[in-house]
Every structure is written in structure tokens, then in C-alpha cells.
Automatic annotation (TrEMBL):
This is Dephospho-CoA kinase. One of its GO terms (molecular function) is dephospho-CoA kinase activity. The lineage of its organism: Bacteria, Pseudomonadati, Pseudomonadota, Alphaproteobacteria, Rhodobacterales. Its main location: cytoplasm. It catalyses: 3'-dephospho-CoA + ATP = ADP + CoA + H(+). Pathway: Cofactor biosynthesis; coenzyme A biosynthesis; CoA from (R)-pantothenate: step 5/5. The keyword Iron-sulfur does not apply. Keywords: ATP-binding, Coenzyme A biosynthesis, Cytoplasm, Kinase, Nucleotide-binding, Transferase.
Length: 197
């Protein structure tokens, strides 16, 4: 049985970079966002069921995220319809990952881990964190959203302090070297626990 480590953190906190560091330390990583992207892509698992429920959301054989945003904006109940389709498919994808992996530590990169209660299925949880100012600067530097959109996303997520308080480990991602040191320390700690279990 592999050790299940949840990896979470709000937008712009350095979660993807931290996931890569866990990969480099010999862990297998499952990325919830990447799973959804695969499913929305041409011939992805979610395309046909979404097309039958929300026909206008599919363009050129793939699910259009922009179109979904518009539909949800017009009718918030669309989100529930979407979740009913996508959540079971995501769970299936995750189960396949678990059955194929041979690593001793499996990292589950899930942005809304606490919000969805996913933390209850993990053996431990890591939360990535940086001060709010750095978080905001990072997100706005990407040039993909406005400050208002960023604040909207942040408002939907559990406050960072709460996530950190509920996590077993907190990794401060202020610099890459600092993050790497902390990831390696977490992996060493967990491998000791696994050996002694």
C-alpha cells in the first residue's frame, strides 16, 4: 500500500512547482487539473457526456472552458450538472493512477482538497504557502487574469491560514531552493514512517 499525500494550496502559491519537486524526489504525482484537461480534450472521457448535457459547451470535438464559464455565468445550476459528470470521471482517473503506480509515496495535487473533503482520503496533507502579497504578484504576473478575477477565485477558496492549520506539513515556496529543501525533508520523514509502519 502506497502512502497517500495530498498536496494543496491556493492559486499562485507554487503548487505545480512543488509537485515537480516531489516528482524529482521519487514520488508519483497525480494532478487533478491535468486529469480534467485530458478529459476535456478531443476524444477525452468527458466530451460525450458533456455534449449530451450541455451541447453548446463542446466545440471542435473538445470541451471549451470559455464556453463553460459563459454557461455557468448565465445559469449557476450548470456547475452542478458539470460536477455530476466530471467528479466520477476524475475519481476513476485517480483510481487508475493508484492501481498503476509502484512508488512508495503517491502525491495527489488537488487545488480544492479541503473544500471537497478530499483530505479525508489522504494519509497526510502538504499545503504550499507564501505571503499574500507574493501570491498576488505571481498570479498577476502570469497575465492571464485581472486583479478582480484573482480576488474572485481567492474568495472561493478556503483561507490560506486555515489550509495551513489543517495540514500536516506546510511548504513555504518563497524560493525554489527553499521549497526543494522542505520537500526533501517531508519525503525523508514519510519514508521513515513507512518503514516503521
Amino acid at each position: 500500500m502506497s502512502f497517500r499525500l495530498g498536496l494543496t494550496g491556493s492559486i499562485g502559491m507554487g503548487k505545480s512547482t512543488t509537485a515537480d519537486l516531489f516528482r524529482a524526489a521519487g514520488c508519483d504525482v497525480w494532478d487533478a487539473d491535468a486529469a480534467v484537461h485530458r478529459m476535456y480534450d478531443v476524444s477525452g472521457r468527458a466530451v460525450a457526456p458533456i455534449q449530451s448535457a450541455l451541447p453548446t459547451a463542446v466545440e471542435n470535438g473538445a470541451v471549451s472552458r470559455d464556453r463553460l464559464k459563459e454557461l455557468i455565468g448565465q445559469d449557476p445550476s450548470v456547475l452542478k450538472t458539470l460536477e455530476k459528470i466530471v467528479h466520477p470521471l476524475v475519481a476513476e482517473d485517480r483510481a487508475e493512477f493508484v492501481s498503476k503506480s509502484e512508488a512508495d509515496i503517491l502525491v495527489f495535487d488537488i487545488p480544492l482538497l479541503f473544500e471537497t473533503g478530499g483530505n479525508k482520503t489522504m494519509d497526510a496533507v502538504v499545503c504550499v504557502s507564501v505571503p499574500a502579497e507574493i501570491q498576488k504578484n505571481r498570479v498577476l504576473a502570469r497575465g492571464t487574469m485581472t486583479e478582480a478575477q484573482f480576488e474572485q477565485i481567492r474568495a472561493k477558496q478556503m483561507p490560506n491560514e486555515e489550509k495551513c492549520a489543517q495540514s500536516d506539513f506546510v511548504i513555504i515556496t518563497d524560493t525554489l531552493d527553499h521549497a526543494r529543501e522542505q520537500v526533501e525533508a517531508v519525503v525523508v520523514t514519510l519514508r521513515k514512517q513507512i518503514q516503521n509502519a
